[in-house]
Amino acid sequence: GEYQHTLDTKNRIFIPAKLRDELGEHFYITRKMNKSCLAVYSSEEMDRISERINQFPDSEVSEIKEFLFSKTIYATPDTNGRVVLPPSLLGYAKIDKNATIVGAGNHLQIWSDILWAEQESERDMEAIRKKLASLGL
Q: How far is CA 113 from the centre of its chain?
């Protein structure tokens, strides 16, 4: 799904109940490595990612670990379903006031509404169709 939300004055964003049910009581929010948005992972998914990264020697993945884990937050929504996004994450994703939360398979992404609109308008549907076909989908 796709959900538009506005940060409140305390930099809290509402995570829809349907998505919170999927994520669990606690989850992780971090920087998406290949896009200017945030990634939201369930505890189980973040454990899988950590295990995969830790299979490699630190000399090969130390920058990945630093990038991914240094700004990652362990989030627990308040009674209204909101989580606080720290300035470091907001700055990375260029989120000022309005954000778009999108489903992305095994995780959620939180985008600046402006960057999400750009992403959607620049999407190469023909390339996506070809990739899907090459995957047999």
A: 14
- Residue owning tokens 């630093």: 66
CA distance 82 to 15: 6
Give CA–CA dist 32/101, Å, rounded.
13
As given in the structure block, the two tokens for residue 23 are 């994520």
CB crowding 40-55: b at 16 or more within 10 Å, else e: bbbeebbeebbeeeee
The tokens for 30 are 């971090």
How far is 108 from 94, CA to CA, in rounded Å? 17
pLDDT tens string 66-122: 999 999 999 999 999 999 999 999 999 999 999 999 999 899 999 999 999 998 888
